[in-house]
Amino acid sequence: MNTIISVKNLSKSYQQVKAVDRIDLTIEQGEFFGFVGPNGAGKTSTIRMLTGIIPPDQGEILMDGFTIDERKEIARIIGVVPESRGFYDWMTAFEYLQFFSTIYGIKKFLQPENIQWLLDQVGLLNRQAHKIGTYSRGMKQRLGLARALINNPRILFLDEPTLGLDPQGQEDIQNLLIEFNRKGVTIFLSSHLLPEVSDLCSRIAIIDKGKLIIQGSMDELRQKTNLKSTYYLKIKGDLKEIEDQDLGNQIIEIKRYSDIIEFLYEGDIKNVNSLIDRLRFKRIQILEFHSKSDNLTNIFLNLTSRQ
Amino acid sequence: MVTYLWLKEIRAQVYTWKGTLWLVITSLLFSFTSYLLLTDKELSLLDQTELLWLLSKVIISVAFLIVAIDSSSIINSEFEKETAESLFLSPISIKDFVFGKLLASLTLWFAIFMVATPYIVVTSLGTHLALPFLGYVLFLGTVGISGTVILFFGVSFLYRSAKNTLTTSLIVLLAFSVPALFSSALKNNGLAQMFGRINPLENIFACLDNVLVDYRLSLSENWRYLWPLFIFCVAAFVFLIFSLNKFQKQGVVKSV
User: Fold this and answer.
1) Could you tell me which of A289, A306, A287 has the C-alpha nearest to residue A211?
2) CA–CA separation, A284 vs A288, rounded Å?
3) Are strands A186-190 and A155-159 parallel, antiparallel or unpaired?
4) Which residues does chain A have within 8 Å of residue B93's beta carbon, measured at their own beta carbons?
5) Bridge partners of A263?
6) How far, in Å, CA of B222 to CA of B107, rounded?
7) Which end of chain A is more exposed for a tag (fewer CB within 10 A), N or C?
8) B12 vs A contacts (CB less than 8 Å)
9) Which part of chain A is CATH 3.30.70.1710?
């Protein structure tokens, strides 16, 4: 794998506020990289510096071998869905994409087919002749993604791409991103939807107060944070059965509602499996079971609240 | 690249009716002025060349005002409507952006000039001044308006707010036009004379007076009014470079 984005010691301040504080990032070609952090953590500033919209105060950025001073060259290999969602409302979706196609130097005879394919991919083909001013927020979001893909980019930066979309729209966009990633497009995704990030991304970085706290795959994040696994179990039966399993010291919370018992269990997944087997053997009805701790939300909350 | 941006602006003017509305207003103003000049008892006593000079002042003033209002928003609308970020994420340079916008503003001036042309031709009948009138209005208007637009673009990049830029632009235009209201005694005051020499609007009016009333048609005879105009354009350009440097240091988006 080749490194496609390399960031060293990147910093940005707005007056006295340090928005991004000496962050280092390395992203490999074809990677689906997640970038998460609380509001005001420095995600958008980082993306804007990487895409050449704002200059960094210090640090080095290398994008597929180009330095940030080579803005025009970088613009040709990247596609961006920025945080700001400005559109020319008086244009139709087709005209809008045609305008950007022309700017990217796409030949006139190739434009209609390419634009219609993209509009079809984002589900706007039947609205291509309508003025953007008549579009809903979700439709504008889809159009923004189509614009970001117009130059067939090698790297795609997405700042909250599914914000304002209905669940179907979110799934459509996620599937489209997966498809482009399979074709080799490197994706840099910033999102507040942590399940979306953990589902899609092969590697994730968490930023807080401008500093990069942690980065790695989900497994690496779990290992690095050393979070104990917690499981939620809801059963119908007698608590005594549970206590008999010699698990008392591993149960961290119990709630009882007549014959329904909810509890949080902290321990190894093997022990949980063994517990479930034994409960089934004793014909205790398991109403609900899921992991509570080893997801990105828990890692995120644990790390950002500790800061 | 410049052409695409210029065409986009022209289409925006047409699609949003902004540009077309300006031309209708311009046409009405010129009709009203020409009608007054030709029918008003007192005005009709004036020498025809004096009438031509008055009409040229109206054309230039209206054009300056309309182009100033338009150029105050043409750049800032990209920032205020948040379209600038998408635009600068594509491979366009700041130079392309500024030239595209400058061409669009000048196109509005040329459209105003086209509207003014029949009024100039009709009011000049019998004086043999139609061609010099058209030529000098076009030349002086293009130079003066280019400088003014460049100056207001500089202000736009500093403020990034259409409202603040428009307020500043109107104050600057007011400062340019106030000396016209001065009495002759006040105009001979040292400070007023100095301001008059560097004031682009004052120089354009004086040059047109020299051409239309005093019949001094050659460029050499009008050079003393032309060089301050060029100096003004250069100064406006230097100011724009300063603003652009500041803009590039801050980035397309000021803060998050």
Assistant:
1) A306
2) 12
3) parallel
4) 71-72
5) A233, A254
6) 26
7) N
8) 88, 90
9) 229-292
Q: How far apart are CA A145 and CA B194, in angstroms?
A: 57
* CATH assignment, A229-292: 3.30.70.1710
Looking up tokens 């500790």 gives A306
* Band of residue A244 on the pLDDT scale cut at 50, 70, 90: low
CA distance B213 to A117: 64
Token duo for residue B249: 């240091």
The alpha-carbon gap from B254 to the nearest alpha carbon of chain A, in Å, equals 8
Q: What is the pLDDT of residue A242?
A: 63
> Is A3-88+136-224 in CATH node 3.40.50.300?
yes
Question: Edge-to-edge strands of the sheet including A186-190?
Answer: A78-81, A155-159, A186-190, A32-36, A203-208, A211-216
ipTM: 0.85
Dist CA A92 CA A127 (whole Å) = 9
CA B65, CA B145: separation in Å to the nearest integer?
A: 10
Give pLDDT tens digits for B72-113.
Answer: 889 999 999 889 999 999 999 999 999 999 999 999 999 999
Decide: helix, strand or coil at residue A97: helix
Residues of A in Cβ contact (< 8 Å) with B4: 99, 102-103
Of B139, B152, B141, B142, nearest to B236 by C-alpha is B152
Q: Answer for the pair A148, A80: CB distance below 8 angstroms, yes or no.
A: yes
Please state, in angstroms and as integers, the Cα–Cα distance from residue B195 to each residue in B58, B131, B142, B183, following that order.
21, 30, 21, 15
Considering only CB atoms, which chain B residues are within 8 Å of A151?
90
- Most B CBs within 10 Å: which of A14, A15, A88, as the mutation test of the B interface? A88
Of A14, A87, A151, the CB nearest to B255: A14
A236 membership: H or E segment, kind and range: strand A230-236
Q: Is A103 close to B90, i.e. CB distance below 8 A?
A: yes
